[in-house]
Amino acid sequence: SHNKPLTAEWPTGTSQMAKTTMGRLIGIGGCGTRRLTSKVINSFPNSKPFLRGDRDTNKFTLSAQGPNASAALGALARLVKDEVAWLEGRRRVCPHEHKSVDATIWHSKNIIGIIIGARGAGLKRLTEKGGFILYKKSSSGEHSFFIEGLDRAMVSRMEQALKAAAKRIIDAQDEHKPTKATLGSAAGISE
């Protein structure tokens, strides 16, 4: 029956995934697993893909249902395997769309915290479902925002939203700065 979900466990057998790999795949607040299931929904609408990590067994449960359940489950399994291979360093190319945006100038203008917002509310407003934006400061002192999404178009939209938000903040700051005027003879004051 189409209503009964097809399920699979991964990794199979007695092999287990490292806890750090599992955590990175799940992502902050489940954004990693949501990104993968959203990708499957884009290809197989109504397949209700499900991906849950069990930290006790270090395994994932994958499921899908509907008329395309088998194909959706296969697609989800491939996405998980590709992601894990990249996380474990067995694949050099990152399997999902992402972009790093240099934030050095924003840091120098002291607006990183304003962009992020209280408890990340600013970034949440800029983030589309299935994607995420993270602030990163490297050990060498570089500041950047890391954007990840379901596809290149989503990453691009979130990048534009991030840059527009930074511009609004900078413009608002500039409005409140005093303007320097030169007082010359027109004001009746000799310099």
What does this structure look like?
- The structure is a single chain.
- The protein is of the alpha+beta class.
- It is built from seven helices and six strands.
- It has helices at 19-26, 31-43, 69-87, 104-108, 112-116, 121-126, 152-175, and strands at residues 6-10, 50-54, 59-64, 97-102, 132-137, 143-149.
- Strands 1-3-2 form a three-stranded antiparallel sheet. Strands 4-6-5 form a three-stranded antiparallel sheet.
- α1 (19-26) packs across α3 and α2 runs antiparallel to α3 (69-87).
- The radius of gyration is 23 Å and the shape is elongated.
- The model has no long low-confidence stretch (mean pLDDT 87).
Task: Please summarize what this structure is.
42% of the residues lie in helices and 18% in strands.
Order of strands across the widest beta sheet?
A: 1-3-2
| DSSP strand count | 6
Beta strand %: 15-25%
Radius of gyration, taken over Cα atoms and rounded to an integer in Å: 23 Å
CA distance, first residue to last residue: 90 Å
Write the layout of secondary structure elements.
Elements: E1 6-10, H1 19-26, H2 31-43, E2 50-54, E3 59-64, H3 69-87, E4 97-102, H4 104-108, H5 112-116, H6 121-126, E5 132-137, E6 143-149, H7 152-175
Descriptive key words:
191 residues; alpha+beta; three-stranded antiparallel beta sheet; 7 helices; 6 strands; elongated
